[in-house]
Amino acid sequence: MNMIMYRELEDYIYGYCQKFQTADELKARQTLMYKSKTTSESMLTMMRTKGWISDEQAILDMIADGPHELKRRVVERIWREHKDVLPLNLCPKCNLITRTPLARQCRFCKHDWHSADVATK
């Protein structure tokens, strides 16, 4: 697949292609999601106990540069290793990514292919 990476494609891969993320990438993502400056120490302790967040050095290193850098690195790796098998929902007209895997209208060119699904059933 010969595509150029763009923000919406990055968002789609990070949000909808999680099965291509490693266990550490998923753990880092979850740690960033649950851990905030306003989270109490008792809540953090409970989340560590349940395995929702991690204090492993490898995970902390992955999130040290913040959520945007983690996302960029994860998407870059997934794209490099799996771009030919990613389940991308691309517009049949302009070949750009849709908002979701089930979307049937392009956010860019506004092409709508809802009726194409009905015609083939």
In short:
The protein is an all-alpha fold. It is built from 6 helices and no strands. It has a domain at 7-88.
Descriptive report:
With 121 residues, the protein is an all-alpha fold. The protein has a domain at 7-88. Helices cover 50% and strands 0% of the residues. It has six helices and no strands. It has helices at residues 7-16, 23-34, 41-50, 57-63, 67-82, 114-119. The model has no long low-confidence stretch (mean pLDDT 93).
DSSP E strands, number = 0
Mean pLDDT: 93
Question: How many DSSP helices?
Answer: 6
Beta-strand fraction estimate: under 5%
Q: Which stretches are low in confidence, meaning pLDDT under 50 for 5 or more residues running? A: none
Class inferred from helices and paired strands: mainly alpha
Keywords:
121 residues; 6 helices; mainly alpha
Helix and strand topology:
Layout: H1 7-16, H2 23-34, H3 41-50, H4 57-63, H5 67-82, H6 114-119
Helix pairs in contact: 2-4, 2-5
